[in-house]
Amino acid sequence: MSFADEVYSMYREQLQDDEEDAISIVLNLLEDQSHEDLLRLLEKLSIDELSQMLGIYLVEMLKIKMIQDGKLHPHKSFIDSNRLH
Fold first, then answer.
1. Residues 53, 35: one domain?
2. Tens of pLDDT, residues 8-44
3. What is the DSSP string of 22-62?
4. Beta carbons of 3 and 45 less than 8 angstroms apart
C-alpha cells in the first residue's frame, strides 16, 4: 500500500467533493512532522512514488515561477507561494 493510499484510508470520511479538504489534511499532517520524520517517510517510498512526488512538486514550482513572471494566469492551486521557501 502506498503512502497516499494509507493517508486516503485514514481520512476517507473527511474527504468530500472539495479539494480544500485534501489540502487541509495534507498541510496539517505535514506541519506536525520534523525534518527527520519527513526523511523517514521519503525513505519508505518506492522509486515510482518518489519520482511522481518530485515531478508534481517541480511542475507546481515551475507554474508558480511562470505566474510570478506573468507567463501564466494564476488559478487556484494547492500550493500557496507565500508558504514556500
1. no
2. 999 999 999 888 999 999 999 999 999 999 999 999 9
3. HHHHHHHHHHT--HHHHHHHHHHS-HHHHHHHHHHHHHHHH
4. yes
In the block, residue with C-alpha cell 479539494 = 19
Domain of residue 3 covers 1-44
d(CA 64, CA 71): 10
Calculate ∠ Cα 55-72-81, nearest 5°: 60
Do 50 and 81 lie in a common domain? yes
State the total domains in the chain: 2
Residue located via cell numbers 521557501: 85
3 lies in the same domain as 37: yes
Q: What is the pTM of this model?
A: 0.69
